[in-house]
UniProtKB/TrEMBL annotation:
It comes from the Bacteria. This is S-layer protein. Keywords: Signal. Residues 1-31 form the signal peptide.
Length: 554
């Protein structure tokens, strides 16, 4: 009986153990279920929009500020990994190297309303996504707008002269704006070579201030004797160093035009070398007819003959280039800012025969000085771009460089000279239709792929809309296509599969209506475009043309 009772007690204990174990297992199972539920309940953000930014790249330069880290994807997405911590970005934000500038090129929005931008450092070291706030209208969060260049501080000395053919220590350390004398000086590249440090070659923009915009030339050795004038200046925001835009005084060296550190230049003044021999030479001087004063510029014509004497007639002799004195005067042209005055008010003849010269060409003698009359001329006529209003009677709107996909249309230097009213009497006029009419010289140059680097023609095999948003469906409207210039993205017509761009087409009739029929030399002409939209894919820029926008009034 004892054993039976003991067994009964064991059974009770066993049952109690089993019940306790089951309860414990149930608790673990329940706890595990709760934890699993909590784990699966953790949600990640989802991207609802992801677009490539298409506005002018120069408007998308940004800087980080260290308040948010950089990730491989939007930071709240599943699997996002850190590319650079907040501490790292905070240090980069104050870097003194422009290589640490940033460009934003994509934007994404999540289902939580957060905006993320994909950015890359100019040197390519860092690339990833960073929180940019709650709106795409302005950078926020870990980003801010950033100007990679800054206007230099005003010069405190406008009277000091540029040093003579040397690079001074003060020039190397100068960060303020150029003085009047420095702007007027002529320069050479101090150390021609291939070093990519900002001082030996030229750049399309100051180095590292625009993403993937680099050198204009990679070796300045061929331009060791070239001289340049300064046309613009700026400082790099991070370094604070002074950069200048240079333009060759001889168009044969224009391929070297671009930006360079001011410290990479040396001022240059020519030392006149006397080659005048009274037995073989004739001096050419120039008189300003508006003031009656003789200019400092002179030239010397020298015969190739060795049998002449001072006082003898120089009329029938030529120089080593086979030029008579008249042809030599024509080849040299007038000093800058002047035009040779002619006896018949026509263009100067190639033999110089109608130049106003004292004494006359027919009386030129060896050892004498011939004085050529010159008249001040206006600067080159420039243009300002506008887009016609879609509403009759409303004023046209000004077009900025950033309105165009590739910036203002660039023209070759030769096209600018041949197609625009260049020089001419300061009190003279030109007929606008001759240059800007439907058959005008500027109209032809602007729309020619041989002189204009961004002009393109779109055909009727794609959708085209007019300024009012109406699709053009009549082939006769664009029977030969539309020739013009691509603008920025037109979001109102873009689709995921077919992005649309604005397209600007020159309108000669509206241009003539926007200007007087005759204008003074050196005036600015309003150029009017019609604006269309198209889903045609823009072709790339014709980088083979050495073109510029010097003719545009900025």
């Amino acid at each position: 009986m004892y054993s039976l009772k003991g067994g009964t007690k064991m059974n009770k204990n066993l049952k109690r153990s089993i019940y306790t174990g089951i309860a414990a297992l149930s608790f673990v199972a329940i706890a595990g279920t709760v934890n699993a539920t909590n784990a699966s309940a953790k949600s990640y953000a989802k991207v609802t929009s992801n677009k490539t930014l298409t506005t002018d790249g120069t408007t998308r330069n940004v800087n980080v500020n260290g308040t948010n880290a950089l990730y491989t994807k939007a930071g709240t997405l599943k699997g996002a990994k850190t590319v650079a911590t907040k501490a790292t970005l905070s240090n980069l934000s104050t870097s003194k190297s422009s290589e640490k500038n940033w460009r934003a090129y994509k934007v994404a929005t999540t289902n939580r309303g957060s905006v993320y931008y994909k950015v890359v450092s100019f040197d390519g070291t860092y690339r990833g996504w960073i929180y940019g706030g709650k709106s795409t209208s302005a950078y926020a969060g870990g980003l801010k707008d950033y100007n990679t260049t800054t206007d230099p501080t005003a010069s405190t000395d406008t009277s000091s002269s540029a040093s003579s053919y040397s690079t001074t220590s003060s020039q190397a350390s100068q960060t303020s704006a150029l003085t009047t004398a420095q702007k007027a000086a002529t320069y050479k590249i101090a150390t021609p070579g291939t070093t990519n440090d900002g001082t030996e070659v030229t750049y399309s923009y100051p180095a590292w201030t625009q993403y993937k915009k680099g050198r204009v030339i990679t070796d300045s050795t061929p331009y060791k004797d070239a001289t340049f004038k300064i046309t613009d200046e700026t400082t790099r925001t991070r370094e604070g160093d002074l950069w200048v835009k240079i333009e060759a005084t001889d168009s044969a060296n224009s391929k070297a035009n671009g930006w360079i550190k001011y410290s990479g230049l040396t001022t240059y003044t020519t030392t006149p070398v006397s080659t005048f021999n009274a037995d073989t030479s004739v001096k050419i001087a120039y008189r300003d007819t508006s003031t009656g004063k003789t200019l400092s510029t002179t030239n010397t014509w020298t015969t190739s003959s060795s049998s002449t004497k001072e006082g003898g007639s120089a009329v029938n002799y030529t120089n080593s280039d086979g030029q008579t004195i008249g042809k030599y005067i024509y080849s040299k042209g007038a000093p800058s800012g002047y035009k040779i005055t002619t006896t018949d008010s026509k263009d100067l003849a190639t033999d110089g025969s109608n130049a106003t010269v004292t004494p006359s060409l027919s009386n030129a003698t060896f050892g004498a000085t011939l004085t050529v009359d010159v008249t001040p001329v206006a600067s080159m006529t420039k243009v300002k771009y506008e887009v016609a209003s879609a509403t009759t009677g409303n004023a046209n709107s000004t077009l900025s460089s950033s309105d165009f996909l590739y910036g203002y249309p660039a023209l070759t230097a030769s096209a600018q000279t041949s197609s625009l009213p260049v020089g001419g009497s300061t009190s003279g006029t030109f007929t606008v239709s001759s240059y800007f009419g439907s058959d005008g010289t500027f109209t032809k140059a602007l729309n020619s792929t041989s002189s204009s680097n961004s002009v393109q023609t779109i055909k009727r095999n794609s959708d085209i809309w007019d300024a009012s948003g109406n699709e053009i469906i009549t082939p006769s409207v664009i029977a030969n296509g539309l020739t013009g210039f691509f603008g920025q993205t037109d979001s109102t017509k873009s689709t995921t599969s077919a992005p649309a761009h604005y397209f600007y087409v020159y309108n000669a009739t509206k241009t003539l209506a926007a200007n007087a029929s005759t204008m003074n030399n050196g005036s600015t002409v309003n150029i009017v475009f019609d604006r269309y939209s198209t889903n045609t894919t823009p072709a790339s820029l014709n980088s083979d043309l050495n073109a510029n926008t010097d003719y545009v009034s900025k």
